[in-house]
Amino acid sequence: MQFQKKYLPIILGVAIAAGIYIGGKLNFMDSSDRLFTKNSKKDKINRLIDYIDYDYVDDINTDSIVDVTVNGILDNLDPHSVYIPKEDMDRVTENMKGDFVGIGISFYTYKDTIVVIRSIENGPSERAGIKGGDRIVMANNDSLTGKRLQDREILEKLKGEINSKVNLKVYRKGEPKLLNFTVKRSNIPIKSVDAAYMLTEKLGYIKVNRFAETTYREFKMGLDKLIAFGATEIALDLRDNPGGFLGIAEQMVDEFLEDDKLILFTKNKRGNTEKSYATDKGDFEDGKVYVLINENSASASEIVAGALQDHDKGTIVGRRSYGKGLVQREMDLGDGSAVRLTVSRYYTPTGRSIQRPYKNGHKDYYDDYFSRLESGELLDPEKIKVHDSLKFKTPGGKIVYGGGGIIPDVFVPIDNSMQNETLTYIQYRGYIANFAFEMLDRDRRAYEGMPKQDFIENFEVTDDMVLKFQEYLNVRTGSKITFVAYNEEVKQYIKATLADQLYGEGSFAEIINQKDIMIEEVIKLSEGE
Which GO terms fall under biological process for this protein (predicted)? Predict the structure, then answer.
C-alpha cells in the first residue's frame, strides 16, 4: 500500500477542499459593524505585523506571514474551514462555477508541444476545424512550444474575454504547411456529469463527479434523456464525489422525493434551524433509485444519499461514505483572498449528523481512510463501527446510524483487482493517456467513421498492445513492469482511454463500468436476483 499512503492523502485533500463549498444559504445575525469592531486580539496581530514590516532587521514579505497566520488560526478549527489565497481564487471559483471562457480543447504537452487530444463537441475549436492530433504552435504570434512553457502560461494565452478572437498556427500531420485558424472564445463547460446512458432496458445510469453551479442542469438533461429512453430506474453514481454546493444537492434530491418531504435541516451555534423541503418539481418521484457511494463520497453526496435513505426511497449501495456534515460559507477577506468558514452542521431528515469526529487533529482526520482500510471495513461490513446512541429509525422502520458517514443498505467490498498500486500509479501519472494518444497519433484514419457504440461493443485491445504499453512504461519509468496478473484490467483501461480521446461523451465510464462489481450488484438488484 505504499502508493496509496503516499498519494491518497494528497488526492483526498484536494478533493475535499474542492468539495466543502456547500454553504451560501445561511444568514449571519451579526452586522458587519459588530463583526469587525476593534479588540485587543486583532490589534495584537496587526501591531506585530507592523513591527515586522517596519523594524525587523531583514526585509520580509509580510503577505506570506499573514497567510501563515490565517492558516494557523484555521488549523485550530475544524478540518473544513480553509483559506483560499488570492492566486488560487480564479481556479477554485472557475471549478465550482462549472465553466470558463476559452477555445474548447482537451490538450496536453507532448514533446514540448501543445497537442490537441480532442476538440470539445460544438465548441469554438471544433467549429473552426481543429482536430485531435493537431499541434498548436503559435497563438497570436506567441510561441507555444518549448520545455520552459508551463500549463498556466499556455492557458493564459488560450483563455480570454468572451467573444474575443485568437489566431492559431497549427501543425497537422500530412499537411505541407502550418494551418491558420481564427477561433472565437466562448463559455466552455467543465463537466460535472461524466456519463448518462442505459445499463439495461429499464435501468439508467448517471455519474456525477461534483456539485457545481451547472451540475443540476447537466443532471436534469441526463435524467430527461434516460426517461426518454424508457428508464424506470436510475443508478446515481456518487462514488469519489467530494461534494459542492448545498443548493444543487437539494435540487437533485427534489427530483426523487415527493412534495413537502424534508430534505435536510441545518443548525448553527445559536441554535437557529433552517429546513429544506421537496417541491412539486420532481420528475422521477415514482421511479426507483439506487445511489452508489464509497469512502470518498462526501458532503453534498452524503446529503443526497442520506435524504433518500431516510425516506426509504430507493437503495444505497456501496461502502460507508466519508462523513462530512459541516456547512461552509465563503467570506471575502478584502484582498482577493477568501476563507471558507464552517458556520453550521447539517442533519438528515431523521435527525442524523453524519460528521465524523475531528477532535484528534487534522492529520488523524484525513488519515481515517487508512484506519478503515486496516480495520477491514472496506472488505467486511461487520467491521464498520456503529454507536447505539446514534441509532435512528426511518418511517419504514429501517435502522440507520449517524456519527461518521452514510452506511449503505447493500454493502459492496472494495475491488482489489481495480485497486492495484501499479495500475493506480500509472493512471494517476497519465501514462495510459499518453500511450493512448501515441497509438491514435500513429494512424487516426483507422478510427475515422467508427461510431462510438461500435467501438465500445467491438473494439478489442490485443495482447500485443499490452506488451507495447509495458515497453513504453519501462522506457519512461526505468522500471521493469509486467501485467501478468492484471492483463485484462490494463486492456480495459487502455480501451476506455482510447474511447475517451476519440469520443468523450461518457465513453470512458461506459467501458470501465463493464467490469465494475458495484454496477454488477445494482443490475442484480434491479433484476431481482
Answer: proteolysis; signal transduction
Q: How many whole angstroms separate alpha carbon 320 and alpha carbon 386?
A: 11
Q: Which fold has domain 193-327+343-414?
A: 2-enoyl-CoA Hydratase; Chain A, domain 1 (3.90.226)
CB 248 within 8 A of CB 300: yes
- The confidence score (pLDDT) of residue 39 equals 62
List helix spans (H) across 85-166.
Answer: 86-97, 124-128, 151-158
In 319-460, at which residue ranges do the beta strands (DSSP E only) sit? Answer: 326-332, 338-347, 391-393, 399-401, 410-411
Q: What is the pLDDT of residues 286-325, one digit of tens each?
A: 999 999 999 999 999 999 999 999 999 989 999 999 999 9
**Is pLDDT above 90 for 495?**
yes
> What is the distance of C-alpha 332 from the center of its chain?
24
Strands 165-171 and 179-184: antiparallel
Residues 256, 401: Cα–Cα separation, whole Å: 22
Q: Does the domain made of 100-189 have the CATH classification 1.10.287.3510? A: no
Q: What is the DSSP string of 413-429?
A: ---GGG--HHHHHHHHT
Mean pLDDT of the 134-151 span: 85
- pLDDT exceeds 60 at position 172: yes
How far is the C-alpha of 440 from the C-alpha of 432, rounded, in Å? 12
Is 204:230 a contact under the CB 8 Å cutoff? no
Q: Which residue has the cell 444505497?
A: 316
Q: What does the domain layout of the chain look like in residue ranges?
A: 9-97, 100-189, 193-327+343-414, 418-525
Residue type, 293: I
